[in-house]
Amino acid sequence: MTQSASSFLVPLVRPPMAPEARRWAGRMVVLAASVLLVAIAAAQALEASGTLALGLGTWRLSLYAYLVWAVALGVGQVMMRGEAGYKALFLLPALLFTVALVIFPTIFGLYIAFSEWNLSSFEGQKFNGLDNLRTLINDAYFWNALRNMTFYVLSVFVQYALAFGLALLLNADIRARKFFRVAFLLPFMLSPVAVSWMIGKSLMEFRFGPLAALMRHLGWDNPAFFATPWIARFSIIALDAWVWIPFMIIMLLAGLQAIPKDIQEAAKVDGASSWSTFWQITFPLMLPVSVTTIILRIIFQLKLADIVINTTSGGPGGATDTISSFIFREYRDRSNVGYGTMVAEVYLVLIIVFMTLLLNAVGRFMRREAAL
Amino acid sequence: MSGLGMDHSYQVSKQPWNWTRMSGRVLIYSALLIWAFICLFPIFWTVSTSFKTAVNVTQGDIIPFIGRFQGDWKGWRALGLSPDTIFQISTVRDEFLLRFANSLIVSIGAPVLAVLIGAPAAYGLSRFQYKFGPWKNKDISFFFLSQLLLPPVVLAMPFLVLYKELALLDSVIGLILIYTLMVLPIVIWIMRDQFDTIPIELEQAAMVDGCGVWGAFIRIVLPIALPGMVAAFILAVILCWNEYFFAALLTSTSAKTLPVMVASQTGSQGISWWTMAALATGAIAPLVVIGVFLERYIVKGLTAGAVK
Which residues constitute the domain of residue A195? Predict the structure, then answer.
């Protein structure tokens, strides 16, 4: 989304500078609030470390101090900078909110990651350097989960092919399009937890599930969808596809509808078959939308957890584990906070590296396509 | 767009029909119907199973009102929501309604907060040139969007500890805060896309008439951007209603949401299918209603920025 400077909203008349007294008052407001915030935080830190007994209770007070500081910062901006301050006010709430809720946990997460901390033991937190990292490198379950992730990410392409086909069908001139669109969208709206039961635990249930009955009817004697590693993996993928294909259909359908009809008409007039029209005209025109869809889908796929946690809990023997479900069990069942957080941080680094590489590769590919 | 599609269909239907065309239509419609069946059957299955008895489940009855499957309130009775138990005291119903209410509060509160702080931010990023040190609009936008990459597992433990210190653990406020963080990038993305389509001259005219930036934003731009705002809001509602990961880790008794309740019941062995189905129906019903009536907005929200 590029913007030329002219598309920005600039005031027609240059607003007058705020008077000196007001600017000074604004600075004072911000300064006072900052001093208050630092003082309260420091007092609470002292209390937490046990040097002072002030009876301040939880850190809630610091949270309120931060809120006061944020408001003071906004007021101060307006007093100091006038018009520009009002403009900063648009962005400040979202920015301060995100920074407070992300920066702190990220730093704190690193601190936890390098310590041994099991909530169920009495010992509490203990710094242990790189031990967690060493455990991780030797943890077969982690590597296994990572392998599964590659598999799950690759499955996105299969889902994409299916979704593209369905989007093409929806884009054909059909009756009752509204009905089909709503029907195709519904799976995406349902809670993955409910879906885990609806499909994973009842439709695919070994004894009474209709899908199992259908499979028996088709000649599979022992339709256990979650008993052997590969079948379980494919079952999870089927569930995941059921939830996420609607999203891809909608994105691709929007792309198809944006293609001018006359281009395809012209190809038809020239006598091209619909097969070659698709590969030579529709598909190349759809490339940008396709890339966006697949990338978004991969981002969501990297967070895949709910379905796995609730259908198989990663079983059998870790065959369906994702990194998220693996960490979830580490937290939930073993209360192993330190190690779980280390896995999460390593995973975050892997995601950032992978996405950077992917986006670079895609960028280069798209530029080459555009040049051709 | 739809006008074009209409012309197209008239033109095609005037062609004399032949066998290739006919078989093509049959193929298209059967593929569409098969996929519609795949999408809808699990929903039908869940709703119908909530009215089954033990024998219906074990015999695999599917179509209601035929033979054995006459419908029974068993599943709903266990939740205290069948006609004969609705006025009686039921602890399960209280539990269910409490979870439902929690889910409702959280999945309305967080989107409201996200739109409240996200819409102005998106407007600012669309209209003004910011400069915080080395960071300009592009970097700030990227900062917000990059939050999408953050997997919940990375934030979960620090938040657990942070909330413990702030006494926000197992509280609705705590969940609202973290859900707001989760949907904020999406809200900003959709709203920015929406604001970019609104011509800047409108605000310039308003400012000539003496409106400030905020006045122009609230009185001129917001009413025009309402469809985008509704789209962002609804998408955020869906995401919050379905969220399980944070709810499972950060709540225990008082702030537990519906997905956590559903999940905890799935795990237990003793629970019967009809009760589970009734519970799942309760969890998906609001979203099915939203999906059927507000499909237009969901599509608008999902495709924001994807097609230029």
Answer: 134-371
